[in-house]
Amino acid sequence: MRKLLVLMVFLVIAAIMITGCTSTKPAPLLVTSPPTLPPTVVVTTAATPAVPAQLAGNWIVTKMGIQDGTAVTTPTTQITLTVLTDGTLNGNGGCNNYNGPFTVTGVTTPKGKGISIGPLVSTKKYCMEYANQETMYLNILQKAMAYNVDGVQLSITATTGDVLMYQRPASLVTPAQNPHPA
């Protein structure tokens, strides 16, 4: 009886193993429908005035009028500004590069046409000689409320009354170099 019981257990185990090893997996179904695309997101924003052509381009700071424009300082190093037509600007504050967004508001103020600049981001090099000047420049620029373009000159006035004066690089007068003796 015991042999019969062992034989039956053996046959049951063998049957389970044989059916487990010989079963076939069903073939995967091929789907021929097109893949589902993610929904299209449409972002709508209020229309912002286009960037005027006379504002776009490269500028170099020639003067900074601080303390409500009563104290005028000339930068000791070149400070640049590039205004792009995509609503961003960038430049160099004398030591560090900076960039950020701006919006031409379309409002006319006594100081010029409305503009909002920032927030600005910049690199973090420390240039002891230019640090205070660069900090002052970036603070004024981020508080911009109006701009005015007069030919090759640009002024940006801050909410504090401080003013940045720029010129187009091609319009700046550079000293003539002395000719070399023959």
Q: What is the N-to-C succession of helices and strands?
A: HEEEEEEEHEEE
> So what's the CATH class of one domain?
Mainly Beta
| Lateral strand order in the biggest sheet | 1-3-4-5-6-8-9-10
Shape: elongated
Number of strands: 10
- Protein structure class: alpha+beta
- Under the CATH scheme, which architecture of one domain would be assigned? Beta Barrel
As residue ranges, the low-confidence spans are: 175-182
Q: Figure out the total of helices.
A: 2
Percent range for helical residues? 10-25%
CATH topology of one domain: Lipocalin
Which range does the strand content fall in? 25-35%
Distance between the termini: 126 Å
Major β-sheet annotation: 8 strands, antiparallel, barrel
Q: What does the radius of gyration come to?
A: 35 Å
Mean pLDDT comes to 82
